[in-house]
């Protein structure tokens, strides 16, 4: 992740500031030394069911997706791959003819990716192209399918609803961007008739999936500080929807949960995070900008535990898998934490390259994609 401005002067200022924000996922840091990993006594077992190579992510962050029969993954070099979920056998690999920047989403009979040119590309489950539509700027978060509508956000602050059958634009929603924004890879979340998205400037919006009309808008965090860097409060990751709650975290701001239907605040507390959240029915999990993994009571926001021994390791968002919480780090390690107290239960090394995005759960398995293009399907017991 980096920071972008909307003009030459601000863009230069953003690049100078990267050193000060080196603890963000995807950024190096000269001032903060990553925590050394100490030996642990495993209480869980992580088994690699199969692995494959799908191509590197380059400057982007890709997340795999799956169905009961298949696993899909994409790479910057314009390729989308499909594997048999059980055996890992490559079923097909499609060249979409332009460098990719986001993906994959798979639902029903569509496989969706986005490109750095702002193109949304829909493939069938056979790997053949169905349609492609170009939006207003690059696509950094995976498109999402909501019934007959594909919902996708572009980096210029706009959200689009596309016809799932043809790719034709049905609606778009636009916001005004602040002078500096995070270059984040968050997508939108679909919950019934709502499409929820975190926005630059600390906003959280719920849109009607069919029309794009604004249902509600709330402020996760108000910008604070004496300069534009200090005032960055973007909600960088997709909101998390669990039951009747929608939760979101902002950089240099707060983590908060809201009533899904009305957008009214249930609770909020100071926090700084640009990573995706995780949850089970009673608990919310968050990785903050320093690499600490937190567990909060989802009703009150009270702290249940925190795991701070991964400091400055550019830790991914947390995934709940059975009795565990799973995160990745900048050296490609997968850390398995006990869900009850945050203690280390297991650790697995992958290919040594960063795990930039939250792992994905598929049934009882966990999917992980590394920056170098390693695709891992894991069983955690």
Task: Write a short abstract of this structure.
Among the domains are: 1-33, no CATH class; 35-58 and 307-381, Thrombin, subunit H (Beta Barrel).
Keywords:
381 residues; mainly beta; Thrombin, subunit H; four-stranded antiparallel β-sheet; 1 helix; 34 strands; globular
Description:
This protein is mainly beta. Among the domains are: 1-33, no CATH class; 35-58 and 307-381, Beta Barrel (Thrombin, subunit H), CATH 2.40.10.480. Helices cover 2% and strands 46% of the residues. It has a four-stranded antiparallel β-sheet, with no helix packed on it. The protein is globular, with a radius of gyration of 19 Å.
Secondary-structure map:
Layout: E1 2-5, H1 8-16, E2 46-53, E3 65-66, E4 70-75, E5 79-84, E6 90-95, E7 100-107, E8 110-115, E9 119-124, E10 129-134, E11 144-146, E12 149-153, E13 158-163, E14 169-174, E15 180-183, E16 189-191, E17 194-198, E18 203-208, E19 214-219, E20 240-242, E21 245-249, E22 253-259, E23 265-271, E24 278-280, E25 283-287, E26 293-297, E27 303-307, E28 319-321, E29 324-328, E30 333-338, E31 344-349, E32 360-362, E33 365-369, E34 374-380
CATH fold-level name of the domain at 35-58 and 307-381: Thrombin, subunit H
The helix/strand class is: mainly beta
Estimate what percentage of residues fall within beta strands: over 45%
Largest sheet: 4 strands, antiparallel
| Order of strands in the sheet with most strands | 2-34-33-32
Summed over residues and divided by their number, the pLDDT gives a mean of: 91
Strand count: 34
Instruction: Assign the CATH architecture of the domain at 35-58 and 307-381.
Output: Beta Barrel
Low-confidence stretches: 5-30
* First-to-last CA distance: 32 Å
């Amino acid at each position: 992740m980096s920071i972008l401005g909307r003009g030459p002067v601000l863009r230069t200022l953003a690049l100078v500031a990267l050193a000060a924000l080196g603890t963000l996922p995807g950024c190096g840091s000269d001032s903060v030394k990553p925590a050394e990993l100490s030996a642990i006594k495993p209480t869980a077992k992580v088994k690699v069911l199969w692995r494959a190579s799908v191509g590197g992510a380059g400057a982007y962050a890709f997340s795999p997706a799956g169905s009961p029969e298949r696993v899909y993954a994409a790479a910057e070099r314009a390729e989308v791959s499909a594997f048999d979920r059980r055996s890992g056998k490559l079923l097909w690999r499609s060249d979409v003819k332009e460098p990719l920047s986001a993906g994959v989403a798979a639902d029903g009979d569509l496989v969706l990716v986005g490109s750095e040119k702002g193109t949304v590309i829909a493939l069938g489950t056979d790997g053949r192209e169905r349609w492609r539509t170009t939006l207003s700027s690059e696509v950094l978060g995976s498109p999402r399918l909501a019934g007959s509508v594909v919902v996708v956000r572009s980096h210029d602050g706009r959200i689009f609803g596309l016809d799932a059958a043809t790719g034709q634009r049905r609606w778009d929603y636009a916001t005004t961007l602040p002078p500096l924004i995070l270059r984040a890879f968050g997508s939108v979340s679909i919950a019934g008739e709502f499409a929820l998205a975190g926005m630059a400037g600390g906003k959280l919006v719920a849109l009607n999936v069919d029309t794009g009309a604004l249902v509600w808008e709330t402020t996760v965090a108000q910008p604070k500080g004496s300069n534009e860097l200090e005032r960055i409060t973007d909600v960088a990751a997709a909101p998390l929807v669990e039951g009747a709650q929608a939760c979101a975290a902002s950089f240099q701001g707060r983590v908060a949960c809201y009533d899904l239907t009305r957008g009214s605040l249930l609770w909020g507390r100071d926090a700084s995070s640009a990573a995706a959240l995780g949850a089970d029915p009673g608990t919310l999990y968050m990785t903050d900008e320093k690499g600490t993994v937190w567990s909060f009571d989802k009703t009150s926001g009270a702290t249940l535990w925190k795991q701070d021994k991964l400091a400055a390791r550019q830790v991914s968002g947390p995934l709940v898998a059975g009795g565990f919480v799973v995160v990745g780090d900048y050296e490609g390690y997968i850390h398995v934490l006990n869900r009850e107290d945050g203690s280390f239960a297991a650790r697995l090394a992958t290919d040594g390259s960063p795990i930039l995005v939250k792992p994905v759960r598929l049934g009882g398995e966990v999917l992980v994609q590394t920056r170098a293009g390693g695709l891992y399907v894991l069983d955690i017991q």
